[in-house]
Amino acid sequence: VAYPVLALLAHNISEVDAAAGLRLLVVALIAVSLLLLILRFIYRNGHRTAFASAMLIALIFTYGHAFDLIFEKWKIPHLSTWMLSVWLILSVLALVWAGKRNAHFEGAALPLNVISLALVLYTAGTNIWWSFPDSSSSTPVDENAPVQDLVPTDGASMPDIYYIIIDSYARSDLLKRDFSYDNTAFIQSLEDLGFYVADCTQSNYNRTDISLASSLNMDYLQNLDPAFQPGRTSRHTLWESINRSVVRTSLEKVGYETVAFASGFVWSEFKDATVFKTPSLLFSELTAFETLLIRTTPLRHFEDLGWINLEQIDGERFRERTALVFDSMDTLARMPGPKFVFIHIIPPHPPFIYAPDGTPTDPAPFLNEHKRYTLKSYTEGYRNEVEYISGQIKTAVEKLLAESAAPPIIILQGDHAPWLQTGKDNFLVLNAYYLPGHSDLLYRTISPVNTFRLVFNAYFGTHYDLLPDISYFSPIPKIYEFVEVANPCQNP
Questions:
Q1: Which phi and psi (to 5°) does residue 204 adopt?
Q2: For residues 191 and 198, what is the distance between their CA atoms, to the nearest angstrom?
Q3: Helix H segments across 20-78?
Q4: Strand ranges, E, within 103-227
Q5: Cα–Cα distance, 154 to 219 (Å, whole number)
Q6: What's the pLDDT tens digit per position in 411-451?
Q7: 3-class DSSP state of 249
Q8: CA distances from 477 to 205, 223, 231, 441, 482 (A)
Q9: 3-state secondary structure of 277
Q10: Separation of alpha carbons 469 and 487, rounded Å
């Protein structure tokens, strides 16, 4: 029974922490122990009991995969009724077969046990390997990443640095044109606080992890590591390069402490940070990974009956993490420095969990019967969240500026544009900077790859050359096959 949990965890280990499967393993082991006791009472034979339980477990955990595959390919009406009927018949046949007098299972025990053990060890090893990257080194994971020693300029104290990624937050012109949303008041409030908002900016890439790996290592991925070349698809090095980046390791080397928050995506969570903030997992309701496992079993149809709402459960986890970020601003501002605070805020990226006033919303109605967003539903959900998150960001930066002992550096950045965009519109993002004493160094087309080159030059005496601000599109799964996308917006 451990294999289905470990296999699903291994398949999604880039998105979740291995600890997400711990509670499921405990529950699954208890449930299977009870099943074994019942079947042992019925069959009075260990081998028959093992066969019957193995067949039932296999049927339970293959159900959702088979359902999704069949529905995606053939769109069969009333598929749930047909599938449940077939799986029930197969379960009854397995139980009857296990009880037949002339059926013998002793010879199959050893090879099946060896196969099962091998599968468990392989998936467990995969999860362990992903969960314990080499974070002991004080140097960046990318050997070709540009590194210069940081020295505070003119004997100045080292300012706190807040790097806040607002996932999919679009540039103002895109918001107005495609979402009929005017965020002029929000942008004006930032500028009134002293922010420089780059109105011609574009992200360098069209995906979060690639964008972060580039901005935090201050170079284009094509220049950083052979793992990021066309023909490669692995993301292991990519995600390690986010955690052990030039920016983080350079700041920690001169005395900065790293503060990070849970995002729900393991590759943007610095769990080995000096301070890592996350909602309690042990006493929470179902997690996103647990709802994913439920969807692999016949229990998924409880949602069809209205007994559970898996999308709403997922949404609550995202709300918990988002609320933790905004509720921590006072604490962050008063926390002794110097500190590098990395925050990845998921809204306005789906799931759509907020109304414009911050009231919790159910993400499920935004999805159609195929669990996809239509243009209309995505536009509505996205616009709602932009309005709420804009207000929260405004309040957050006001607190940081008012309560910090010394003026901090604050960077607000979208990592890519909203979904359903094409061409250059994939890259139109918010890019705003609070750089006390150095706003004059900023320019309209600055992109994330140059963010920390400029910051380090201004505050830490480095001499990084600013790179050309270029955007690259890459598709799934060929994420390193980059095609340059021009920025038609020019500096004056």
A1: -85, -25
A2: 11
A3: 22-43, 46-74
A4: 161-166, 196-197
A5: 27
A6: 999 999 999 998 899 999 999 999 999 999 999 999 999 99
A7: helix
A8: 15, 20, 10, 37, 12
A9: strand
A10: 9
